[in-house]
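Technical annex, item 7. During the second reporting period the consortium partners agreed on a shared format for inverse folding records so that results from different sites could be compared directly. Each record opens with the tokenized structure and is followed by the designed sequence. A conforming record, contributed by the partner at site C, is shown below for reference.
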């Protein structure tokens, strides 16, 4: 397996595909971080340091700026990196006739699939670590905010969460490369699944929740309708890896975030309700944030493990013929 990992790492880091994807991700991330830093500087210039206290450095990753935040970018377009790393992991070897030659050596099938998956994860880890370090240095120079110990721990946990999220898409890409012999077919199927999971699942969840609960923005819904709407929206978010990543990352990187706030989206709150909603909206500790995100993280980890387990079982049971 070590030989497979070394060979795959040489292929990844020496490929033009890796350089192009890395350059594109870095350019967009630099732009988003620059815009977020500009927004933070504007708030600080207007005397909003008390509002940013305790999360100034984290806002480099969560502030929207003129477009969207870095976390939203990783949630929507981050899967493309994982898919690009693995959509031709197996069928390329099969089409070139090298897979049968590899298996003719004293190398077991499980070592091949594990080596390719671990090599893809290592490549993604190097890219993500380099990106976060460079953006952190850019934030230190541009904003001048020194991260606290709590912020560093939250960023480390966000790195772990992102790796689990990328592991799902990498496992999905490898699964498609096992199922389909054609590289073009696996690439097109991966793109279709990315569009469906990231873009269509949230829209369908919102539509079903609105239709089944009879909730709309022009009327004041009853408490039972609001509860039904929130339950359906949470369910739609938790069946999608992108929704799980968005929910967990928003809580980890924002100490004031207390989870889903769909309850107050359509409700017409009274003066007392508004006071209570703001009175108890303090900064959460890291332990409290972890308690909120733990169900989403466990579900995302299960998705990643199941998709890789499925690709593992199919590959070890698949017939491989020499070309």
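Designed sequence (site C submission):
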């Amino acid at each position: 397996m070590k030989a497979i990992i070394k060979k795959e790492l040489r292929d990844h880091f020496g490929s033009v595909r890796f350089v192009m994807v890395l350059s594109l991700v870095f350019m967009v991330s630099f732009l988003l971080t620059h815009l977020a830093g500009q927004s933070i500087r504007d708030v600080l210039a207007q005397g909003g340091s008390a509002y940013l206290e305790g999360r100034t450095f984290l806002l480099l990753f969560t502030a929207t700026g003129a477009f969207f935040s870095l976390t939203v970018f990783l949630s929507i377009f981050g899967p493309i990196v994982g898919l690009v790393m693995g959509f031709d992991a197996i069928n390329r070897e099969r089409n070139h006739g090298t897979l049968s030659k590899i298996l003719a050596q004293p190398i077991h099938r499980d070592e091949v699939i594990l080596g390719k998956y671990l090599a893809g994860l290592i490549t993604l880890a190097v890219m993500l670590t380099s990106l976060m370090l460079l953006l952190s240095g850019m934030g230190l120079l541009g904003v001048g905010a020194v991260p606290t110990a709590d912020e560093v721990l939250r960023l480390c946990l966000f790195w772990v969460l992102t790796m689990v999220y990328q592991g799902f898409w990498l496992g999905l890409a490898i699964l498609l490369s096992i199922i389909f012999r054609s590289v073009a077919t696996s690439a097109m199927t991966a793109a279709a699944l990315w569009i469906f999971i990231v873009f269509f699942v949230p829209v369908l969840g919102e539509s079903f929740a609105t239709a089944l609960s009879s909730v709309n923005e022009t009327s004041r819904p009853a408490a039972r309708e609001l509860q039904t709407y929130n339950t359906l929206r949470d369910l739609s978010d938790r069946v999608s890896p992108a929704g799980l990543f968005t929910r967990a990352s928003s809580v980890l990187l924002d100490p004031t975030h207390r989870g889903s706030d769909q309850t107050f989206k359509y409700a017409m709150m009274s003066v007392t309700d508004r006071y209570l909603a703001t009175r108890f909206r303090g900064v959460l500790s890291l332990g409290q944030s972890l308690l909120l995100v733990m169900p989403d993280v466990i579900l995302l980890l299960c998705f990643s493990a199941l998709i890789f387990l499925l690709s593992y079982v199919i590959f070890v049971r698949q017939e491989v013929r020499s070309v």
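Residues 261-280 have pLDDT under 50 and may be disordered. The first helix runs from residue 2 to 13. All partners now use this format for quarterly exchanges.
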